Amino acid sequence: MKKINIDSPKKTIRDVEIGDRVTIFDFVNLYECRIGSDTRVGTFVEIQKGVEIGSHCKISSHTFICEGVKIGSGVFIGHNVSFINDRFPRATNSDGLPKNRDDWDLIPTTVADNASIGTGSTIMCGVVIGEGAMVGAGSVVTRDVPAHTTVAGCPAKVITDTEGN
Amino acid sequence: MKKINIDSPKKTIRDVEIGDRVTIFDFVNLYECRIGSDTRVGTFVEIQKGVEIGSHCKISSHTFICEGVKIGSGVFIGHNVSFINDRFPRATNSDGLPKNRDDWDLIPTTVADNASIGTGSTIMCGVVIGEGAMVGAGSVVTRDVPAHTTVAGCPAKVITDTEGN
Amino acid sequence: MKKINIDSPKKTIRDVEIGDRVTIFDFVNLYECRIGSDTRVGTFVEIQKGVEIGSHCKISSHTFICEGVKIGSGVFIGHNVSFINDRFPRATNSDGLPKNRDDWDLIPTTVADNASIGTGSTIMCGVVIGEGAMVGAGSVVTRDVPAHTTVAGCPAKVITDTEGN
Q1: B63 at the A interface (CB within 8 A)?
Q2: Active site residue A62
């Protein structure tokens, strides 16, 4: 791993640790995260601090990965996928002042190795998406996804295992 | 309020009125709108003309706020939230020429003070999201949301009031 | 048609054929595609290689159009719309190495003339959206949409024809 900092017209990258042969496309905002070898990061992607992404992943355009998310290796994240880390988000505290990071509980989310998350999906905080699982496009995932199963819908439900049964 | 114009590599900001201590992140397209004091605007956000946003709000990354939307103070708008202002959008008029702003009816949308709109939600035009209401992540809101209630789903339905009842 | 290449701070445009009076906004990533006359392309849009878009279309902000998509003339694509071209996406092959374009089957999608796709919709691969059809905001389209009908929901179902019956 090496740490990179790029502040160019098309890239805002601050304190990001990357492995070998990582590809990062234009118009990205990445900070204080780790991205494994051979992983590709598409355009219009934001990855927040503390995020860990394994090797050989594909993070597609327009996707948002927040603090608290850990992604294994060989994972496909489609376009326009959003993660969440706060179950009851509010802009302000009860005193009316803006919430800072200390004012709410971060709830982690895990995506295990070789899972695929379809384009346009929203992943609620606190879930584990199991190894090799597949989330159908446009899903809203609100609970854990067992390994090697496919889920789809809003809220997402198991529709099959990945062997087609 | 002061009016700002910034045309830098990472920001397109034209005729935007802002209050004090407004934070605007990279890769934004904001024009002819008003943003109140202490409000934060994330990356990859577009805010169109005529939009009014109160103070102490958080507008998260990848969100689109169109003409006709009025947002109160202390409002949380999640990531990847889209508003709408045209009920039956078409690219062209019956003569086949591109529609201009005079060729369709703008339908306004209001988000009242201290409401929260979850990540990945789509807000149909013409709705009022009441004070302190919460819209669950990944929702499609097609009708008014009463104050201090939580809605979720596609289409979004009331699941509880915000006291947990 | 003329071919354009622009690599400026706010635009990444490579080998794109455009007609007359095409408008392209800031923060876009367009490559090896064709865009017809009088079509408008919004901010934060990515259009991939091989995509063909007709004349007099409106492609709104935050939208992703992938390889394999063909869009007619007079088409409205809302904000934050995502297309798909791979039914079972995976990041890697069974040998664990990253998939390249030769390692999966591209499944095409067609949007016929004068159709409208609402904001926040996800369009599964392999569908045909018929002439003049309308897809409601926030829909997940998983099957063909007949001409001159309106569909909505997740998954999208016919709710009316466009005459209001």
Answers
A1: no
A2: yes
Q: What is the pLDDT of residues B117-156, one digit of tens each?
A: 999 999 999 999 999 999 999 999 999 999 999 999 999 9
What are the catalytic residues of B? 62
DSSP state of A65: E
Measured between alpha carbons, how far is C88 from C8 in angstroms, rounded to an integer? Answer: 35
For residue A8, the distance in angstroms to the closest alpha carbon of chain B comes to 9
The domain locations on chain A are: 2-87+102-161
Check pLDDT > 60 for residue B107: yes
Q: Residue A66: pLDDT band by 50, 70, 90 thresholds?
A: very high
Q: CA dist A121 to A24, A82, B70, C94, Å?
A: 22, 7, 27, 25
For residues A153 and B153, give the distance between their C-alpha atoms in angstroms, rounded to a whole number: 10
pLDDT band at C98 (very low <50, low <70, confident <90, very high): confident
Residues of A in contact with B56 (CB under 8 A): 91-92, 96-98
The CATH code belonging to domain A2-87+102-161 is 2.160.10.10
Question: B2-85+106-161: what fold?
Answer: UDP N-Acetylglucosamine Acyltransferase; domain 1 (2.160.10)
Q: Which long-range contacts (CB under 8 A, 24 or more apart) does A24-31 make?
A: A25/A61, A25/C29, A26/C12, A26/C29, A27/B27, A27/B44, A27/C12, A27/C27, A27/C29, A27/C44, A29/B25, A29/B26, A29/B27, A29/B43, A29/B44, A29/B61
User: Which value does ipTM take for this structure?
Assistant: 0.95
Q: Name, in order, each residue with C-beta under 8 angstroms of C66's C-beta and a sequence gap of 6 or more.
A: A79, C48, C51, C83, C84, C85
Q: Which CATH architecture has domain C2-87+101-161?
A: 3 Solenoid (2.160)
d(CA C122, CA A80): 10
Per residue in B16-47, pLDDT (tens digit) is: 999 999 999 999 999 999 999 999 999 999 99
* C44 vs A79: CA distance, rounded Å: 13
Q: Tokens in use for A112?
A: 């295990």
